[in-house]
Design brief:
With 127 residues, the chain is an all-alpha fold. Helices cover 86% and strands 0% of the residues.
């Protein structure tokens, strides 16, 4: 139960941070291009790499699973799920499963966009 609460709290922090960045970047750069999402996805993926690398290579076993969940699934999950997607793709590549990684990358993007269009089409059809 504690882990669920930690993910919940971290998710709120990440989502609030994302909202603040959306507002700030939209004000500074406008909305003609999705700069906010672009910046959030890249910064979230970079942070995921730093945190995952720290826990894997530098921190050892001294750090709790609770802290890992709070930071990665919680904060970064609320901030951007693209960071988890990026980590999954990198882990597939690093484990020597290049074809699986490429399939995951391409299929995730293509099918997610197709799913969005299907959802839009369905709602328009019943409206």
């Amino acid at each position: 139960m504690l882990q669920t609460v930690l993910v919940f709290l971290g998710g709120g922090i990440g989502a609030a941070t994302r909202h603040g960045i959306n507002l700030t970047v939209s004000r500074l750069l406008g909305t003609a291009f999705p700069w906010s999402t672009f910046i959030i996805n890249i910064s979230g993926s970079t942070l995921m790499g730093l945190i995952a690398g720290f826990f894997a290579f530098r921190a050892g076993a001294g750090w709790s699973q609770d802290l890992r969940l709070f930071l990665t699934t919680g904060i970064l999950g609320g901030y951007t799920t693209f960071s988890a997607y990026s980590l999954d793709a990198a882990l597939l590549f690093e484990s020597g499963r290049s074809f699986a990684a490429l399939a995951y990358i391409v299929l995730s993007v293509v099918l997610a966009i197709l799913g969005l269009f299907a959802g839009l089409w369905l709602i328009r059809a019943v409206s």
